[in-house]
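ok trying again, last paste got cut off:
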Amino acid sequence: MNKEQPLVSVVLLSYNRPRSLTAALDSIIAQTYGALEVIVVDNRSAASGEIAELVHRRYRGVRLVRNGGNQGYTGGMNGGLAEATGDYIHFTVDDVLLESDCIEQLVNHAEAHPFEGMLAGIIMNEDRRTICCAGGDFSLSPIYRRAHVGAGEEDTGQFSQPFEVSCLDGAMIFSRRQFMRSLGGFREEFFMYSDSIELSARVLKAGGRITIVPGARVYVSDLPHGYTREGISFHKMKNLYAMYLLHARWRVLPEFFLRYGVLVPLRSMLGNRKMVWPLVKAWGWFLSKTPSLLRERSRAALDGARGSGADGGRAGATKCRTPTGQVQG
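nice, full thing came through this time. structure:
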């Protein structure tokens, strides 16, 4: 390890996929950047014993954190953040392969452009030709909008220079460790879905920037995760409600909740009765959390969060990019 290089803690979240974990770890071990601390956080599953044996036998320098249960994406990543000691932290998951110079590209940009915020690169589909996303933008208007920059496009080099976005995908997040800790990490009650969007909203409110470094690339596969459609719908709905109550403008909330709390779910239930219970659970969860969410929103307002952030500026308007990565509209 080169002592002059800043240490990067790589937190790799694992759940029930030992074969893909092996490929992901191999891509991390093969990084051209040498000053790495690798932490595998394993959410308990039927394969946890096999995963523990694999890490201890094949990856002796890798630290394994074994959760007693499935803590979801947010709890797992926060567990890794608590264990990390690096100057920087890089969050990834077990179905993502890093290109060999991915972390070197991110560190070089961070060191050349001191920042408070988050970095990521280009997330490619496993066919290695098409883009999954190059970050994204979101809008907490009465109609929720989220755009994935470059999604589905052939990779023709259209993203050649770093550019700013308003949100990242959870498959690839790089930041200063202390900055991430100052934000409190991920919101654990989200479990999964919208977690990286909500984190992005807090980064923007804190005056931070979110930048895509095109030279840093990863490849992602769409592997099964074992969650039911109903379970996914529950987390998507409750998290969207909570995110709006925390970060959206007051004036958009009535129309938003009428649309996404009543009309959209009713249409879903008419087509699939199995969606009734996820909606009931989502509303029950949200109503139980409403007092604490409102207190948190009030505290943030009293603290005078720097910048307009997601409540009135960058996250409040959806942006789109031309093939050259320039912002329009």
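cool. The first strand starts at residue 8 and ends at 14. Residues 8-220 form a domain with the Spore Coat Polysaccharide Biosynthesis Protein SpsA; Chain A fold (CATH 3.90.550.10).
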